[in-house]
Prior knowledge:
Elements: E1 2-8, H1 16-29, E2 34-40, H2 52-55, E3 59-60, E4 66-67, H3 70-78, E5 87-89, H4 90-103, H5 113-128, E6 142-147, H6 157-170, E7 175-182, E8 185-186, E9 189-190, H7 193-204, E10 211-216, H8 222-232, E11 239-243, H9 251-257, H10 260-267, H11 277-294, E12 301-308, H12 318-330, E13 334-341, H13 353-367, E14 370-373, H14 382-394, E15 399-402, H15 404-417, E16 424-425, E17 435-439, E18 453-461, H16 469-473, E19 479-486, E20 488-490, H17 495-500, E21 504-508, E22 515-519, E23 526-529, H18 544-554, H19 557-561
Parallel strand pairs: 1-6, 1-7, 2-5, 2-6, 7-10, 10-11, 12-13, 12-14, 14-15, 15-23, 16-17
Antiparallel strand pairs: 3-4, 8-9, 17-20, 18-19, 18-21, 21-22, 22-23
Amino acid sequence: MRYVLVTGGVISGVGKGIIASSTGLLLKTLGLRVSCIKIDPYVSVDAGLMAPAEHGECFVLTSGGEVDLDLGNYERYLGVRLTSEHNITTGKVYLNVIQKERRGDYLGKTVQIVPHVTDSIKDWIKRVSLIPVDGSGEEPDVCIIELGGTIGDIESMPFIEALTQLRHEAGAGNFMNIHVSYVPTVHGEQKTKPTQHAVKSIRSHGLIPDVVACRCETPLAEPTLAKLALHCQVETSQVIVVRDMPTIYQVPLLLSEQKLIPQLRSKLALDKVTISPAMSVHGTELWELWKSVVTPTYQEELKIALVGKYITCQDAYLSVVKALEHSAMKIRRKLNLMWIDSEDLEPTTKGGAAQAKYHKAWHEVSTASGIIVPGGFGHRGTEGMMRVSKWARENEIPFLGVCLGFQVAAIQFARDLCGMSEATSEEFDAQAKDRVVVYMPELDRHNLGGTMRLGLRKTIFQQDSEWSRARSLYGGAEVIEERHRHRYEINPELVGQLEKAGLHFVGKDETGERMEIFELKDHPFFVGTQFHAEYQSQVLNPSRPYLGFIAASAGCLDEVLKQHPVQAFKAHHIPNGTAQ
């Protein structure tokens, strides 16, 4: 197995995940099979219980694993299906080691960080790197490993030691380290000292960067490059400038322009890897298709209002934003995303700034071509979400509600058209009379971690749903599969009333008791999904509900429906959301 380790210095959030994903894409264009592992040094076992406003999005895998958002980047760029084991955390490692110690696996030895914890990390990486991820059943040729955080963090030390040992054990031609650092510009001068110290730090821990990827706002001057190469003890060609780009999807092109592929070939001895002609052709086609999609500039702007409760941390909606971007690129539109706090849409008795926020938020909603309400937890801000769903429904503005957005739109519909003025969710008021949304009875109410309805689940389109735009977006399929993450569902006892009033549940689960998709007939596009279709959206293969929403907002939905989007890019990716 060949490994590419991506580490970071100076500051966190410098773009390691995008560079790791882009490197993986370049390897795929050579015809190689690529897998990815993300290491998160936090003690949490997984990302399931982390606050979105603090940590960002919790990405959900096909298996139901709740993992770091960077695994979403890997799947979007590389078209792979990863497992929860591809996300290694300190919590998982120590849990594994302690379980072994309790079973007596260490034969009475004193359990220590070195060698027991480090050996556990190495064994985990070696085992998981061999798991097939592209649907072919074949083992990957290269595994990208991203180490989260910043070199020097105390919680990263066991992982750095393990990776240093892995480099030694893998041997020459099987290991490459890309170190990502930030080069700030202060008073017009590009400062190299932070990167010098970052490289010095990683070298002191036993890892030797083969490439130094410098994140910066603008291209680096030649003297700056020469200085970095000199003091980081690398050749100038080993310093790659990763400047800000119009879109992150152009980063692979930037890395290719700076000759990263020849360095990958050399350092990983790729000339010794046997690549089938079919994979080689596939890689070439993938690269040409990628360039054709991500390079054009789109002049026509499309204003979309994203109404959520975590907008102070936009990473909380990362997959939603990416699905919107993929769809906008597909129909050749420039996405103008307006971030609106759902609380600002609720009437307020306060004056001054609160009133100004209220009027500003509603002005932005009124100018949007489409409105999306994504997922979330808790009561805060949901009244604003309901009000904006009412606005979209009554003013025939394209609307997409996802998970919580699906639920609040149904609640507002019940209030307005089913005579349930006090309709609500059990999540908001467990004692309410008209609970349109209820807790799923089979779930564990006491333990929160990993106890939701998670992962890939089937949705069955109903027999009388031939008119459905949502179904048409899936190519008229009878059964689809999308990923879920929720504890609450539409109350099965009230479905009849809702449907009689015009809220059609065109998609249900296998039992017919759990509602998955609703849609209005006499509306340009008013769709809600209990599932998170954004999790399966890919750059070359946009999510179906998101593509339909964006197309409807741009006024070209009928044109898109004629293109049979399920077949799009089928040669390059597993068809999104279709039953396998």
